[in-house]
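Ticket #341: bound-state structure for 5'-deoxyadenosine.
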Amino acid sequence: MINDILNKEELNKEEIVSLLRTEDCQDVQLLFQKADEVRKVYCGDEVHLRGIIEFSNYCEQDCLYCGLRKSNSVLERYRMSSAEIMQTAKAIYNMGIQTIVLQSGEDFSFGGNDIANIISSIKKKFDVAITLSLGERDYEEYKLWKTSGADRYLLKHETSNPGLYPVYHSNQKLKDRVDHLYFLKSIGYQIGSGNIISLPRQTIEDIADDILLCRELDVDMASFSPFISSPYTPYRKRKNADLTFTLKVMAAARIVLKNVHIPATTAIATLDEFGREKGLQAGANVIMPNFTPNPYREKFSIYANKKCAKDNPLDCPSCLENSISLLGRKVATGKGQSLKV
Ligand code: 5AD
Ligand code: FES
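RESOLUTION: The complex was predicted; output attached.
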């Protein structure tokens, strides 16, 4: 039965839901195997590394699930200086990693020009691709940053359920989020979207829609990360996502989306000691090692016990390389551009 679905070229919502509902151990293995095959066909054996700099944990938003939410008055806030950001960018580049992800909460005290200056300074010094993950900003700012040299924008839709979106996000609208994504794409960014798996009230059908929304948006990158409860948020007592279920979502996403980059997230590594490795064997082809320096690193606490929140070097690249080669894979050289060009 599951084989019939796995062998179809294009899956509909009902079929994705049945993949996600699969409980039989053998079927689950078949699902992971198929995802691994599809990954190999479209992405090869290379694993792309994207070095993240979490340069500010200030956030104007109040997402119910996120530890950085504005109402969390317990969290000590920080902003890295331009010099600190440049130093970190250099460390990433020196490790041979050619994508730098600049991530922050929605922090408007970094104005359009501040971010533009950071982008152009990095681009001037290092031959890297730049991904921005700064939340929703003005359309004029997106344009400015593109002309300053940014290549990609990561803005997860988080949930594709238009009824739940405003519940998690202080009455904001899914449509606005999606409009931002289409705009980013229209001005030439490679775009990334995705969801959080097992948010309160979310159904399996919602998750199938999350995957389908990524297909509709024709994203270059899609990130499906497990919900992990975060203290000092309204969802602090909610259950974390299950590891196997998370892997099933990633596998189904790979089978449906085919030629997109899919990360094995820090969140899955937090759920399970070998979460990343398991993710890489269930469809993922990207890892995003964290380069945020101390003492800031542990303060970017989106959720509890975030992997490598304290140790330094966090994600030691030679350890990563080791575990990647143990899987019979190799670290990619180059920038790891969109698979759609
Ligand atoms: N569990 C998992 N992922 C989370 N994020 C925010 N809060 C959580 C949580 N509790 C994710 C969001 C956001 C990214 C930076 O972190 O998807 O886009
Ligand atoms: Fe900052 Fe969600 S709490 S964007």
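RESOLUTION NOTES: The CA atoms of residues 56 and 78 lie 6 Å apart.
TICKET STATUS: resolved
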